[in-house]
Amino acid sequence: MLEILADRTYRHLFAAQVTALAGTGLATIALGLLAYDLAEENAAMVLGAVFTIKMAAYVGVAPIAGAFADRVPRRALLVALDIVRAAAALALPFVTQIWQLYLLIFVLQSASAAFTPTFQATIPDVLPEESRYTRALSLSRLAYDLENIFSPTLAALLLAMMSYDALFLGTAAGFLASALLVVSVLLPSTAPKAPRSIYERTTRGLRIYLATPRLRGLLALNLAAAAAGAMVLVNTVVLVRGGLGLGESAVAWAMGAFGGGSMLSALALPRLLDRAPERAVMLTSAALMIAGLCALAAFIPGAGLSWPLLLGAWVTVGIGYSGVLTPSGRLLRRSSNPEDRPALFAAQFALSHACWLATYPLSGWLMTAFGALAALAGLSALALFGAALALLLWPGSDPVEIPHRHDDLPPHHPHLRGAGEHVHPYIIDDLHRRWPPADPRSPD
Fold first, then answer.
1. Dist. CA 315–CA 308, nearest whole Å
2. What are phi and psi of 424, to 5 degrees?
């Protein structure tokens, strides 16, 4: 997997991702402490609003940013967004009012909503070979999992020597380091797009996404992953501290079990995807993820919640979670032309976070109102619904090349090359606005 780091451009981009993630992790911890200083007993409400603003920015800003990402060079856009994020982080230590916190968080997360899909859409252009791109996806997943371990450790060391305001300086440093790494490489440019209206540019990624069967299946799997992930991320602290009566370090170990399972899956996926199609891998992973939740729910009424049982369930859920999410970039790459990738990755970013926007509060409400068993049952049912929906929406036969005709085009059109029915990799674009029916004799 690490051999792809021999590519200088990708190596610098991966380092940019890692430094930005480390900075973001420090900010997450510092925000909790800042919220407590500002609101004390209402800190949980303030943090809830902060995360809601974050998700709203992701859902609302990403498609708009994706629509205009091709208007400026990618490198300049990414560097500018990193600078905006660094400036917002540097301003956070000077916050004295809650509304100031909300405003800065919206600015920071809006910049992230524009940065992340543009960055993700650049990687398949840097690594066009599918096998190398698959390894880049797994490496990216590992970076996310390692960040969940590294950032809290670094934050604990820094807080032993200085105030939490210094964590925001670390956040800004991470974003500035990311900007320097991005500016140090040349990024591939995409072909210029045809002129389009603002509405068409803003909705193009969503229309391509929802018109492609494999991506409709991906959206359903995003829902399944968000349901299982919300159970882990929202309710682990309640299960460990309230249900088992264990200390704070046990919460970290439980989250580490989930992250460890995700890392194991990410390490195994490149070879697995060389041998099996994404649909089989992702649906099997979803089934494993759901099985981990259901097993935990099944044992609680009889044997009760136990520490080994929780760790085993979270490892299993982590393996399935990574197996669902990691291959998604391959599907997006296969389903788009290079010039449409920023818009399509932005659509994936917005739609997947819309799933989280629904499952985060649902998870907390089920646990608070009805207890652990109801939360596990409800979120397992939602994850199962997502997996079943993916099974229906994503056809088992999903060829890249599809025979089709264009009865709406004149016979001499350059795309037809004199042929009526023809075969090529099928992607939704200006000439292919709908997915072709199963009968190749029908027009697309």
1. 11
2. -165, 170
Tens of each residue's pLDDT in the chain, 444 residues: 577 888 899 999 999 988 998 888 888 778 777 877 887 666 657 766 777 788 888 888 888 877 666 677 888 989 999 999 999 999 999 988 889 988 998 999 899 888 888 888 888 888 888 888 888 888 887 887 777 667 766 777 777 787 888 889 999 999 999 999 999 988 876 655 555 665 676 788 889 999 999 999 999 999 999 999 989 888 888 888 888 888 767 877 888 888 889 889 988 999 999 899 999 999 999 999 999 999 999 998 877 889 999 999 999 999 999 999 999 989 998 998 888 888 888 889 889 989 998 888 888 889 888 889 999 999 999 999 999 999 999 998 888 778 877 777 777 777 776 666 777 788 887 777 788 876 544 445
Token digits of residue 340:
């449409």
DSSP-derived pairing of the beta strands 422-425 and 401-404: antiparallel
Largest pairwise CA distance in the chain: 75
Q: What letter does residue 431 receive in the DSSP assignment? A: S
Q: How far apart are CA 262 and CA 274, in angstroms?
A: 19
Question: Residue 285 has which token pair?
Answer: 């992973």
Residues contacting 227, CB < 8 A, separation 6+: 355, 359, 363, 379, 380, 382, 383, 386
Cα–Cα distances in Å, from 74 out to 111, 121, 339, 410, 427? 14, 10, 12, 36, 23
Give the residue among 137, 119, 437, 121 at the shortest CA–CA distance from 281: 137
Q: Which residues pair with 402 in a beta bridge?
A: 424
Overall residue count recorded for the chain in this entry:
444
DSSP assignment of 244-295, as one string? S---HHHHHHHHHHHHHHHHHHHHHHHHHHHHS-HHHHHHHHHHHHHHHHHH
What whole-number distance in Å separates Cα of residue 126 and Cα of residue 74?
12
DSSP 76-88: HHHHHHHHHHHHH
Count CB neighbours of 154 within 10 A: 17
